[in-house]
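Input/output pair, single chain:
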Amino acid sequence: MAPPWGISLALDSHNHPTGEPAPSIDDLDITRELIQAGEYLKIPVLDHIIIGHDDKFVSMLRDELLDFPQRGARKMHENDESSQNSGI
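Output:
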């Protein structure tokens, strides 16, 4: 059930003025806290994207830097599909 204020998901992003999009320890820590707060509020955090220079970016979801709840659901779905395709 979605929260009463109409927010269904959150996406965090910011830039690194240095141009290097690699996440800092603080970036990882705050994202963990956002994921926990989102779970409590029933607002899943979709991803945290850090933008650098020259079209470089880091997606914490894509790069599997943190355990986003939807990644676990997606992997379970992929495992189900591969089981069905292999005849298991």
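The beta strands are 10-15, 45-51, 57-59. The domain at 10-85 is CATH 3.40.140.10 (Cytidine Deaminase; domain 2).
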